[in-house]
Amino acid sequence: MRALPIAAVAVLLLVAPVAGVAGPGVAASDGASPASEPARPAASVPPSGPAQSVDPVSPSTSPSRSVDLASSADSPSTPSQLAPQIETANLTLRTLSTPSGAATRVSTSTRGPDLGSSLGFATADADAAFETAAVVDRIERTETNVERQQQILAEINRVERAEVALYSRQSEAFSSHADGEITDRELLDELVRVAATAKEYDERLDAIDALADATEDFSSPGRLDELQVALQVYEGPVRDRALAIARGQSAPSDIYVASSQGAVVLATVVEDEYVREVFRTGRWDRGGSDISNDAAIEMTEAAYPETAALRQPDAFGAGSVQRITIPHEFGTLQTFVSGGTEQVFVEHQRVGLTAFPDSEPVTASGDGFNVTVERTYPGGPVTVTVLDDETGEPVPDVTVTKSVGGGDSRAIGTTDGAGVVRTLSPAEPYRITVVDEPYVVVLDDIEPLTTPRPVGDE
Predict the structure, then answer these.
(1) Which residues fall in a compositionally biased region of kind Polar residues (predicted)?
(2) Is the domain of 332 the same as that of 386?
């Protein structure tokens, strides 16, 4: 990577400053400072209702549906696309995770503004943009039509080789984190850089494609489209959030990270929405055969039958990778399906928290409080609600702490006007404590639910 001149770096600092921001929707949890102890001890109040892991809802089948390849995943759905309503009481929104039985490193840390990371991202972005401009210049400076065609093909080949290196770079980051060699922040920074590089390559191919269209008796080879779809798998909604936080454009947030060899799970809460992305390299056959959009839709419907029953999927892709999107009333599911394995290897989910289906309440009362914890699966959103035990009214400005696996209690925040504060579920039993000195309510030994995995990945 080329170093930028000092003047350019100064300009970048002015363009992308790291600013102070307000408190997050998900307050600091595992990385926050310990909360002060109450004035008097309180005995743990056993939560009502079951506190054991439960099996995911049994899948229901849904009819296969297909769309034209030209249908954009971002286009709005029409009423005719709506599937028959299903019972929301039986709804589950399945999600990928690290492979069952794999040794997995799990942690949750608070990400905040970071001047060093922000400057590094800006420098890398500028460097990549300069390279794209140089590519365009090399093509435009060719003297003959044949030379122009050869240069276009050479630049596409160069991006192909760069994508292979990008895949290796990301896989190494997964393994390094799983082995404990790098921190959560270092992993997220690397994944943000990978995503930004992939996006720049994608935009570079757009520019090359336009130049190919303007070349006499020539058009872009089909592998350009395939390469552009493959580059999109390196992007993700949690990576986008991590980048915005580092630049000071979004409030600090807790980010859940689970990694194993060849897999990573990232999750966070953005305002009133749960955001999750999963990458499973073992499910991507990089030398796999082509897969049609119809086949990819069928694979996604079979793996996520409840989600597919909500609305008809959209498909977009080329070659051995297809992107499937299902926008539905609870959020959005986007998958990338691989030819060869015919499996989903990348998953992006956005789910509204007001109707998050994969949760189960545990409650406790004491010292004038009625506390409900909506427990969910590892990395899922946990909503804590504190009400007045007599009036049922929300109790704002009450401190809530979380202790994982018998560790120290750390503040996750204070309740808002609705008496609510949110955190992310750990992978092991945890304790939630509501503190309004001298009053205390404790919900102990809260078990995370079983992750509702896609069909075939149980």
Answers:
(1) 72-83
(2) no
Three-state DSSP at 386 gives: strand
CB 423 within 8 A of CB 379: no
Select from 266, 155, 267, 143 the least CA-distant residue to 206. 155
Q: What's the rounded Cα separation, in Å, for the pair 422 and 267?
A: 13
Same domain, 336 and 442: no
**Pick from 402, 428, 398: nearest CA to 415:** 398
Model-level pTM? 0.78
The per-residue pLDDT for range 161-196, each reduced to its tens digit, is: 999 999 999 999 999 999 999 999 999 999 999 999
3-state secondary structure of 227: helix
User: What is d(CA 371, CA 361) in angstroms, rounded to the nearest whole number?
Assistant: 10
- State whether 237 and 115 are in the same domain: yes
Distance from the Cα of residue 45 to its chain's centroid: 35
The answer to whether the CB of 422 falls within 8 A of the CB of 442 is no
Separation in Å, CA 210 to CA 203, 215, 335, 409: 11, 9, 28, 57
The encoded tokens of residue 211 equal 């130049």
Residues 317, 423 within the same domain = no
The range of the structural domain enclosing residue 430 comes to 27-54+357-446
CA dihedral 224, 230, 232, 237 (to 10 degrees): 180
